[in-house]
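FAQ: What does the model actually see?

It sees only this:
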Amino acid sequence: MKIMIVDDEMDMRQSVSQWLALSGYDTETYASAEEALSHLSLDYAGIVVTDIRMPTMDGMTFLKKITAMDSTLPVILVTGHGDVPLAVEAMRLGAFDFLEKPFDPDLMTEIAKRAAQNRRIALDSRALRRELSDGSGLVEKLIGTSGVMQRLREDLLDWGQADGHVLIDGEIGTGKTLVAHALHAVGPRAGRKIIAFSCAAWSEDQLVTKLFGPTADGTLPLVEEARGGTLCLEDIEAMCHPAQSRLLAFMNEQGTPPQTRIIAICNDHAPDKTVEGALRPDLFYRLSALTIILPPLRQRGEDILTIFTQMAQKFSEEYGCDTPILTTQEAAQLLQAPWPGNVRQLINITERAVLQSRRGLGAVV
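And it is asked to produce this:
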């Protein structure tokens, strides 16, 4: 995930870039909003950190142009001490957050982390909507011939037609977001919106406002934007108690069958935490009317080589090169790996193998 840093002061650009780079981010810097804008696109894989006070095009104008192009692209504004009212106005116009100079670098990193998470979900949702809008990508995306995958595909086709709310659980990288979008795509709500929202990417007040309103810029709160369709709540275990109460009230008001389907996704699997423990009991039982638990890849041994082969063919077509052939030793390494990152990790390794094969280095896994 990239972070675009825009500031007319070189020292500020460099210091922000260095700190975020140390935190593991890929940064790119620009001295003007005009230059930065020329490098942005609808599917820009990153976020923007920009100063407000700049010559020619200032941060507020830059923000308006970004939101007009892509309202889901998070913009973090950096303000001087006297610019806080201006920053508040920027939040009303759609800014993700703001930092007041001088700011704590750790706070900047934390805000950037939340913004990047929010952006990643938005991009994933957009891509999945394109590929699964008619449900035809379901079989292609959910790769595997194991019994558990066959049952999962059957369950999705059945539960996609149901009205009950759904709780999706499983380790990171098992495909929970894909399953949520597939449920929406194969059901009667496919023609309506699916709104994806991360409960962990916002502060408590922002979360409540984003979901239930009233919004500062007059846009519809997400429960209204998703009405008649599906509201997908990622990181449900991070939802604060005031938001849990509001969500339960919203669900109760809908009656049966619900007008809006709620799909909740649990992503935190710390040893001392459970989604049942994080949610108030009445909300948990409402959300878990239908529960899907995705198996880790290490329990789907017969699918590992199938996933590698299909994804290798896909990446080879994208990069215009031959599909790498696994040696017996490499295949054994794949089958014996613990896969803490599950399918997502295997896909990343497959892409790397294709790139290395293209350079004549062999399919090193």
